[in-house]
């Protein structure tokens, strides 16, 4: 039994020695391979700091400059519709006509009452003047003169009332020809011809002034706080009174030719979205823009100060943050690639290329690798500069 046990132990020791020998050989081979790996060819860009105009891009919706509900101010039967749905109408154009006969009769009645009131004034004035003369001659009593004078004053008041009634009748006749208060695009009719409308309670149609469009969008309160902090530290400059230039990007990616201005910023923050509403106005002379469109708005006018610009491809992400590779010499004087974490800001587009704004993490004496990162297999890998990169 003991000789058998001794034989087993020897076999185990022999196998362990063999494994150790193989492992050592493999480590030597890998080290040799790594030392034998040629330096990766890369392009570098020297770190320089500059001031960079930035663009803020946000989703937005369009609305007309004026969105008007068309209602009749008087009641009556709709006699005709005077527009084509969806077409442009001009200010003062009649959109609906109510049955005008009742309003014309009211106007004629008011005119007749005005004539009667004018005649009454003429008559009572003659009576007052006659009684005044007789009173001076002591032919009539003072009481008779006072009555004549009061009748004249009442006739004057009735005349003024008749004038008001005539103006009201004229106004109602005008209101019965429901007119467009502004120029714009008319919607569909909501009340058909022959229907009775009881006045302002009934919506007839809607009209939108599209000569100027309002661009409405939300801006994150968190981002606004960051921007205010950057303004206080001097690292960011905003346009005066926050009047950003507003450029519209349409759904197909094309740029709308007209540029607007931000003219409103709501002081309230939406408790559901955490954003506050901003608005810009932009000209729409050819009606290319329509209310309700979803677009993107680019806000221009802000400037970042003392930052580094790097091509987007040079900035990598390891899952915990952004970093770049720096070409630097190690203790042996060999040029190697070492990672450097960076704090990025906005994207900037220059000559159809995208760049990251690097707010901190780099110093001006460093060289950032901008080409050849795929050849860097591990931090500290030897590199050689093939060419100097360009921005």
UniProtKB/TrEMBL annotation:
<dbReference type="InterPro" id="IPR058625">
    <property type="entry name" value="MdtA-like_BSH"/>
</dbReference>
<feature type="domain" description="Multidrug resistance protein MdtA-like beta-barrel">
    <location>
        <begin position="212"/>
        <end position="300"/>
    </location>
</feature>
<dbReference type="Pfam" id="PF25876">
    <property type="entry name" value="HH_MFP_RND"/>
</dbReference>
<feature type="domain" description="Multidrug resistance protein MdtA-like alpha-helical hairpin">
    <location>
        <begin position="107"/>
        <end position="176"/>
    </location>
</feature>
<feature type="domain" description="Multidrug resistance protein MdtA-like barrel-sandwich hybrid">
    <location>
        <begin position="67"/>
        <end position="198"/>
    </location>
</feature>
<dbReference type="InterPro" id="IPR058624">
    <property type="entry name" value="MdtA-like_HH"/>
</dbReference>
<dbReference type="Pfam" id="PF25944">
    <property type="entry name" value="Beta-barrel_RND"/>
</dbReference>
<dbReference type="InterPro" id="IPR006143">
    <property type="entry name" value="RND_pump_MFP"/>
</dbReference>
<comment type="similarity">
    <text>Belongs to the membrane fusion protein (MFP) (TC 8.A.1) family.</text>
</comment>
<protein>
    <submittedName>
        <fullName>Efflux transporter periplasmic adaptor subunit</fullName>
    </submittedName>
</protein>
<dbReference type="GO" id="GO:0030313">
    <property type="term" value="C:cell envelope"/>
</dbReference>
<dbReference type="InterPro" id="IPR058626">
    <property type="entry name" value="MdtA-like_b-barrel"/>
</dbReference>
<feature type="signal peptide">
    <location>
        <begin position="1"/>
        <end position="26"/>
    </location>
</feature>
<dbReference type="GO" id="GO:0005886">
    <property type="term" value="C:plasma membrane"/>
</dbReference>
<dbReference type="GO" id="GO:0046677">
    <property type="term" value="P:response to antibiotic"/>
</dbReference>
<keyword id="KW-0732">Signal</keyword>
<dbReference type="GO" id="GO:0022857">
    <property type="term" value="F:transmembrane transporter activity"/>
</dbReference>
<dbReference type="Pfam" id="PF25917">
    <property type="entry name" value="BSH_RND"/>
</dbReference>
């Amino acid at each position: 039994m003991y000789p058998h046990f001794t034989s087993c132990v020897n076999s185990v020791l022999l196998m362990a020695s063999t494994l150790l020998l193989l492992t050592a050989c493999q480590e030597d081979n890998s080290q040799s391979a790594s030392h034998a790996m040629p330096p990766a060819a890369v392009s570098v860009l020297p770190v320089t700091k500059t001031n960079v105009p930035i663009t803020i891009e946000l989703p937005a919706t369009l609305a007309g400059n004026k969105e008007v509900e068309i209602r009749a101010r008087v009641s009556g039967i709709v006699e005709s519709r005077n527009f084509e749905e969806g077409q442009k109408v001009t200010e003062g154009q009649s959109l609906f006509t109510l049955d005008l006969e009742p309003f014309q009769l009211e106007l004629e009645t008011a005119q007749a009452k005005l004539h009667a009131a004018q005649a009454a004034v003429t008559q009572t004035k003659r009576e007052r003047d006659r009684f005044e003369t007789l009173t001076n001659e002591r032919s009539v009593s003072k009481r008779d003169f006072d009555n004549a004078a009061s009748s004249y004053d009442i006739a004057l008041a009735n005349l003024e009332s008749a004038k008001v009634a005539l103006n009201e009748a004229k106004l109602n006749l005008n209101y019965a020809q429901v007119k467009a208060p502004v120029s714009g695009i008319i919607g569909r009719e909501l009340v058909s011809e022959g229907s009775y409308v009881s006045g302002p309670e009934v919506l007839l149609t809607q009209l939108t002034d599209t000569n100027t469009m309002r661009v409405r969008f939300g801006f994150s309160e968190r981002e606004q706080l960051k921007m205010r902090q950057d303004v206080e530290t001097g690292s960011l400059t905003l346009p005066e009174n926050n009047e950003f230039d507003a450029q519209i990007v349409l759904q197909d990616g094309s740029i709308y030719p007209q540029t607007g201005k931000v003219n409103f910023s709501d002081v309230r923050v939406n408790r559901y979205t955490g954003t506050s509403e901003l608005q810009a106005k932009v000209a729409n002379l050819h009606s290319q823009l329509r209310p309700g469109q979803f677009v993107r708005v680019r806000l221009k006018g802000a400037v970042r100060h003392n930052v580094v610009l790097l091509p987007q491809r040079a900035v990598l992400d390891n899952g915990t943050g952004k970093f770049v590779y720096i070409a630097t010499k190690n203790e042996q004087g060999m040029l190697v690639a070492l990672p450097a974490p960076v704090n990025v800001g906005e994207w900037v587009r220059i000559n159809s290329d995208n760049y990251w704004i690097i707010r901190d993490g780099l110093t001006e004496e460093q060289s950032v690798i901008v080409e050849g990162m795929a050849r860097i297999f591990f931090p500290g890998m030897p590199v050689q500069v093939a060419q100097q990169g360009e921005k």
